[in-house]
Structures are given as structure tokens and as C-alpha cells.
Design a protein that fits this description.
The strands form two sheets. Strands 1, 2, 3, 4, 5, 6, 7, 8, 9 and 10 form a ten-stranded mixed beta sheet that branches. A three-stranded antiparallel beta sheet has the order 12-11-13. Helices cover about 35% and strands about 25% of the residues. It is globular, with a radius of gyration of 20 Å. The protein has two domains: about 220 residues, Cathepsin B, Chain A (Alpha-Beta Complex); about 35 residues. By secondary structure, the chain is of the alpha+beta class. Its EC number is 3.4.19.12. Keywords: Cytoplasm, Hydrolase, Protease, Thiol protease, Ubl conjugation pathway. It catalyses: Thiol-dependent hydrolysis of ester, thioester, amide, peptide and isopeptide bonds formed by the C-terminal Gly of ubiquitin (a 76-residue protein attached to proteins as an intracellular targeting signal).
Length: about 260
């Protein structure tokens, strides 16, 4: 696999060197900055009896605006071709949760159903697994979340679909992954769940992002509760604070 891969970065695009001297350098030493967008291209192969090929040959990250709606915007972009349905998807989730109180209980939501719906309706907040499961059913697609820090792919398939989309998650932000195909020449946002080549390329892009430090360690972040102004160190303290007070509105503090 590595022999037919090419990784490029920057603008104009430059290929990451693979000579012996460069292999001993860090990405920073090569000149790749933190959060640099990397493109993975798999060179086309001549089909043989031993090699299974697909029409997908390149995986790329599509940067989604960091406006607290990146989860909804990423899914909207991949499923409809536009981020313009992000708000609609957010309130679709609110409606589903509100109208199914026996399924979305306080134990499931970690807050009363009514309060959670009010929280999610606030454009400063975003969802997670619950909202992705709902949108999986809405769009009849499996959502695979690539968690950069943990090097994991988490499949969410409320619809039991055979189609799949990929999201790249750095602990505080979601971006969309797309695949460039040559037969026919197009950008594919939705792929078959059985397409192993797409999974391999998505994993490679996640590994590259992880090696470049493309994630945020939420365990060491400092938060401020906007309701009572309490300062909290790390996600565990914030979670414990929410459990005790039912306060769920936080802002990140860069420097105290």
C-alpha cells in the first residue's frame, strides 16, 4: 500500500518527501504546520488476479466552518451537497428527541428531555452520538466518525444502511471527508459501506492528522461555566459539574 501512496500538503501542493533522511524527521521539521490539510492519493493500479481495486483513488478533507454547527454542517454537506441544511438538521434532532421522551430519557441525555432540547436549540451548542444516530436514520446512511486522538473509527448506523459517510473529529471540531473517483470522474461524498479501499484511505488520513498533532486534548483544557462562572480544569471536571448542577453551558478559556 505505501508504495502506491502520495501525500501532499500546502498551496501549491507539495509532496511529502520519502527519502531516507526525511523519514527520520518530524512533520514539523519537514515544514508541515499543525492543522495543515493533507491530501492522500493512491496511484491507480493495473488490475490483476491478486489485486482488488476500486474506482476510488483519493481521500481529502473538506474543512467545515468552526461555528458550533460543524457536526450538522458536515453531515449536511456529505448527504445533500450543501451545508445549508445544518440548521434544519439541528432542529430535526430537537424534534425527534422532544417527541420521543420515553426513548430520550434523563438517563440517556444526562439532563431532563425539555432542558436538553432547549440546550440543543441554542446555536452555540452541538450534539454528538445521539444526534448522529438520528441523522443516520434521516439520511439512511452510516456515519463513521474518525477520532484522531484515539485513532478509532466509530460507526453510527441507526438506519442499518449499506451506504456510508466519513467525519474527521479532533475532539472539538468535525470536518467532512470526500473521495475522488476516476470511474466516473467525480467527488464522492457517500460510498458503499463495503468499500474497503475507502476505509483504508480514511484511516491513512486520520493517521497523518494524528501524527501531525491534529487534535485537541480536552482533558487538559480549561473551561468556564457561563451560568455560575466556575472555572473547571479538563473535561472530567466540567462533566462532574454538569452532573451536580445541571449547568451545561461552557466556554473554553485559553489563558487564565
Amino acid at each position: 500500500m505505501p508504495s502506491r501512496q502520495k501525500i501532499t500538503y500546502g498551496f501549491p501542493q507539495k509532496e511529502i518527501p520519502t527519502d531516507a533522511a526525511s523519514l527520520n524527521k518530524t512533520l514539523e521539521q519537514i515544514g508541515i504546520r499543525s492543522r495543515e490539510m493533507l491530501n492522500l492519493t493512491v496511484k491507480e493500479l493495473h488490475p490483476t488476479k491478486q489485486i482488488h481495486t476500486t474506482s476510488i483513488y483519493a481521500c481529502e478533507k473538506v474543512e467545515i466552518p468552526a461555528d458550533n454547527s460543524c457536526l450538522f454542517a458536515s453531515i449536511s454537506y456529505l448527504c445533500t451537497g450543501s451545508t445549508s441544511h445544518a440548521t434544519e438538521d439541528r432542529f430535526h434532532c430537537v424534534s425527534v428527541i422532544k417527541n420521543n421522551p420515553t426513548k430520550y430519557t434523563e438517563a440517556t441525555l444526562v439532563s431532563p428531555n425539555k432542558e436538553y432540547c432547549a440546550w440543543l436549540s441554542d446555536m452555540r451548542h452541538w450534539g454528538g452520538y445521539i444526534e448522529m444516530e438520528i441523522l443516520s436514520e434521516k439520511y439512511n446512511v452510516e456515519i463513521c466518525v474518525l477520532q484522531v486522538e484515539n485513532n478509532l473509527i466509530v460507526p453510527i448506523n441507526g438506519a442499518q444502511s449499506k451506504k456510508r459517510i466519513y467525519l474527521l473529529y479532533d475532539n472539538i471540531h468535525y470536518d467532512a471527508l470526500v473521495f475522488k473517483a476516476h470511474t466516473p470522474p467525480e467527488v464522492r461524498k457517500i460510498v458503499d459501506a463495503s468499500d474497503e479501499e475507502a476505509t483504508i484511505q480514511a484511516k491513512e488520513l486520520m493517521n497523518i492528522a494524528r501524527a501531525a498533532g491534529g487534535y485537541t486534548n480536552v482533558k487538559t483544557m480549561t473551561y468556564k461555566c457561563t451560568i455560575c462562572n466556575k472555572i473547571l480544569n479538563g473535561s472530567k471536571e466540567a462533566h462532574d459539574h454538569s452532573a451536580k448542577t445541571n449547568h451545561m453551558d461552557y466556554v473554553q478559556i485559553q489563558n487564565l
